[in-house]
Design goal:
Length: 120
C-alpha cells in the first residue's frame, strides 16, 4: 500500500511540475514564447530575432536583468505584434521559479483570446 501511495505521489509531482526549458513557436496560426527561470539572454536574443523576421513581432527584453551565468534574474518583457496587439510582462526571479512567463498570439479567425502576455 505504501508503494502505491509513493508511486501516486511521484506521478502527481511530475505531472504538476512546470516546464523548465524555454519554448516558442512561430507557427502560421499561433505563436508563443514561454520563458522559464532557466531562459538565457542568448536564447532570448535568438528568439526575438526569429519573431521579428518571421512574424514582424517585436520582442524587447532590454530592461531584463540577467545573472552572471546568463539566466534571468528579473524579467521585463515588452511585446508588440505590430497589428494592434501589444503588452508588457514583468516577473521577478522568485516568481519565475514558481510560474513561467511569456506571451501567445493566436491569428486564427475565431480565436477567443487572440493575445495574452504574462503568466503562462
Amino acid at each position: 500500500m505504501k508503494k502505491i501511495i509513493l508511486i501516486l505521489v511521484g506521478i502527481l509531482i511530475i505531472s504538476c511540475s512546470k516546464e523548465s526549458e524555454t519554448k516558442y513557436s512561430t507557427d502560421s496560426e499561433k505563436v508563443f514564447l514561454i520563458i522559464t527561470e532557466n531562459t538565457t539572454e542568448t536564447e532570448l536574443t535568438k528568439i526575438a530575432s526569429e519573431f521579428k523576421t518571421e512574424k514582424n513581432i517585436t520582442v524587447d527584453f532590454s530592461k531584463t536583468e540577467f545573472s552572471e551565468n546568463g539566466k534571468i534574474k528579473n524579467l521585463n518583457l515588452e511585446v508588440d505584434c505590430n497589428d494592434g496587439f501589444k503588452g508588457i510582462a514583468k516577473s521577478s526571479g522568485v516568481i519565475l521559479k514558481a510560474k513561467n512567463s511569456g506571451f501567445s498570439r493566436d491569428y486564427s479567425e475565431n480565436s477567443k483570446v487572440p493575445f495574452v502576455i504574462g503568466a503562462m
